Amino acid sequence: MVLCLLVICLVSSALLAVVYAVTKAPIDAAAAAKTNNAIAQVVPEFDGTPELAEISVAGTDYTYYKVSKGGSVAGYAIIASGSGFSGPVTLMVGLTSDGIVYNTTVLSQAETPGLGAKCTEPAFADQFRNFNPEEKVLKVKKDGGDVDAITASTITSRAYVAAIQNALNVFAAITTGAQPDAASGASTLHATMEYENTSETDNGGQSNE
């Protein structure tokens, strides 16, 4: 019986190793293609291969890609998140070399279908194309900003905005070494949204407003 179990374990392990070896390359290629597609969507036209790097801002590690055109930096594609109604809303945020939001795309989210999940739709996301944070206030209008929130999904909208603000903080850290003010930076904004998220749940979770 021990010998039979040993043989079964060895055969199973060998099969798993073969399956892993066969599928690893296609899975890695698909993941790389998804990432490259997201980068191409959010940054201006660039030459060559995006340069992968990491940076820590306000105690959080971020991944970003630097792209160049004609030997000069064309922009950055930064992965950042905000706390949504049902979990993190993770974006790829594209910034030009002068700090303007070129475009954004959602990498992952688990928001309510028909409500917060509308953050992936152009009707909401397109308002961040060529968004200049020096000319507009990066907050939803309910909070005194210039961003139109998704109807009945203010928490999701704030999460999207928070992700972009986090990306802007990363951009500042990359280009100038500046770090966000701990008293008014992204961490405080996340804490506020988490409190509102809990409050909505306590009220029965009927609305994402």
Question: Could you name the key traits of this structure?
Answer:
209 residues; alpha+beta; 5 strands
Can you offer a commentary on this structure?
The chain is α+β, with helices and mostly antiparallel strands. The protein has helices spanning 2-42, 122-125, 154-176, 186-202; strands spanning 47-57, 60-69, 72-83, 88-96, 101-108. A 5-stranded antiparallel beta sheet has the order 1-2-3-4-5, sandwiched between helices. β1 and β2 (60-69) form a beta hairpin. α3 runs antiparallel to α4. The model is unreliable at 183-206 (pLDDT under 50).
Q: How are the elements arranged and paired?
A:
Blueprint: H1 2-42, E1 47-57, E2 60-69, E3 72-83, E4 88-96, E5 101-108, H2 122-125, H3 154-176, H4 186-202
Antiparallel strand pairs: 1-2, 2-3, 3-4, 4-5
Query: Over all CA atoms, what is the radius of gyration?
Result: 21 Å
Question: In percent terms, what proportion of residues is strand?
Answer: 15-25%
Query: Which residues sit in consecutive blocks of at least 5 with pLDDT less than 50?
Result: 183-206
N-to-C terminal Cα separation, in Å? 61 Å
- The share of residues in helices is 40-55%
Strand order of the largest sheet: 1-2-3-4-5
Total beta-strand segments:
5
Shape: globular
Oligomer: single chain
